Amino acid sequence: MNEHEWQEVIGTIGIFVLLITVVLTVIWQVGASRRAKLQLAREGEYQRIAEAAIAGQRTIEQQLAQIGGQVADLQGRTDKIERVLKDVE
Questions:
Q1: Minimal CA–CA distance to 26: which of 39, 34, 7?
Q2: pLDDT of residue 26
Q3: Is the model's pLDDT at 80 over the cut of 80?
Q4: How far apart are CA 66 and CA 51, in angstroms?
């Protein structure tokens, strides 16, 4: 092989290396983009779950507050009944 043929071989190899590098970089970036989108979707789902949990907790707190009011009311009524019974004795 003469010097000109070697230059063509080296040039061809260089172009293939460049093309492979570009293709691999594009594939890598597309994969990174997809991973980022999936992570955002996952974080959005976690956000929705957390909001639902907070709403459920608030509902439970409201129900407990109502029950607490009812317990206090029943305690007051029981105290009144006890006083009446003591007065009757």
A1: 34
A2: 98
A3: yes
A4: 23
Our CA dihedral for 39, 44, 46, 52, rounded to 10 degrees, sits at: -170
d(CA 47, CA 53): 10
Confidence class for position 72, pLDDT limits 50, 70, 90:
confident
Calpha distance 63→41 (Å, rounded): 33
The DSSP letter of residue 2 is: -
Closest CA to 69 of 59, 81, 77: 77
Contacts of 39 (CB under 8 A, 6+ apart): none
In Å, the largest CA–CA distance within the chain is 128
CA–CA distance from 29 to each of 17, 19, 24 (Å)? 18, 15, 9
pTM: 0.55
Residue 25 has pLDDT above 90, yes or no: yes
